[in-house]
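Blinded run. Sample ID left blank on purpose so nobody reads anything into the name before looking at the predicted structure. Input follows.
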Amino acid sequence: MRLLLFFFALVLGAQTEEQARDSERAKQMMAAGRFEEAIPIYRQLVQALPGNTGLLLNLALAEHMAGHEREAIPHFEAVLKVQPNLTPASFSLAQAHLALNQPAQAIAPLKKVVAAEPKNADARGMLASALLDLGRAGESASQYRELTALSPNDARAWYGLGSAYQAIAAGVFEQLSKADPTSPYVSALVADTRVQRRQFRSAFFFYNEALKQLPGLHGIHAALADVYRKSGHTDWAAAEDAKEQALPAPDCAAHAAECEFLAGHDLKLTTLPHTPPPSAAALYWQAKAANELALQAFFRLGQLPPSVEMHRLKAEIARGQNQHLESVQEWRAALELSPGNPRLQQELAISLFLAGDYKSSLEIAGALLKLDPKSAEFNFMAGDSLLRLEEPEKAVPYLEAALAADPKLAAARASLGLALSRLGKYAPAVPLLEKALDLDDDGSLHYQLARAYQASGQAEKARTAMAQYQEILKRNQEQKDEVAREAQIGPPK
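Blinded prediction complete.
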């Protein structure tokens, strides 16, 4: 409250005795946390003294602290036009934009605050998070590194730093896979991901695919040795370790990025300029470096006392490994440290849903909807849970509300189509199911669409949809059979 009292002191001049009393009364309300009551007083004062930026700032602060961000933002902006270097006003403006989920608009005022106050950990943390939300992972990582230096025991900073480097690695992988999806470097990175998910047979397959074209690639034989050890084949692991040690040193003139990685220069690799466009090999080592930096950040997080962020990380890892009950346990542990946190409750509901506990997921979604009745995500979660619980009639209003809030939410469109189809309302179900077919990985949408076509007298379309359903089933089975054949862990070649 110290900053607020400072700004109140700015406005006491050039006021009548009655205005001074009103200003003092509003100040006391703000100090007592009675922000709503202070707002009309400041509005009257601003109307009476329109040139007083101190009063306008106080009105903006009262609106912001009462949660009226849309009203506060233009008032903060008006103050900053007159006093552009008023750091607390810039900070509050950024907070208001973030509260409205407008990270792009928060960047400029946060950068201004950080430039004026380099040791302001709150502002730097908000800036790093906003940059990450906008997909500017490199800039975000830079800010998070500064933050970990300022606050080395801040779990949020280490979690954010690890997340930023994960995002850098994902971006590099996307760039590499778009340029050449059949590249052996893509296979090697996919294999790394499979190991993280404990999908060792799949990892074994992809590592060997990479070795077919890049037999001298450093790290692959060591990675295969790790797969062998984790799958109980220590003798085979020793053979792969020997192959790794027998590889000649890389030609640093031809493969500079590889040498940088092997020398441990991870940070340098993640900040390499992309002009001219880097080679596939350079992108591969850049992704490896970013992943290594993420692991280092998360290791440091694990050394700190128990935190929401540590439980969050464990929950996300468990979810990635399809261990949804373990994920549920970690989200619940995080909520013990941050009771009532809506974001954590939403993640808990998702993990419960993925674990097949639709009733518990529905209960949490219902509680979250009391806080945000128009939320597309919460309405979808409730509606889809009800659909899985074989209550399509109850599901429909929630799914309709989800689409009203976000017409582009394809998953809600698919669920609503399924719900209406099960209720025998085939005519409105058909267009919903037709628009959701891109999501159909198991054939269920095509099957329900075929039934809807049949019921509405469109026999030819019904036959086509049913044939496509059968084709999806056949393709999925063939893929399963192929994986079963190819992804057997065998001895070293």
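Unblinding after everyone has recorded impressions. DSSP finds 27 helices and no strands in the chain.
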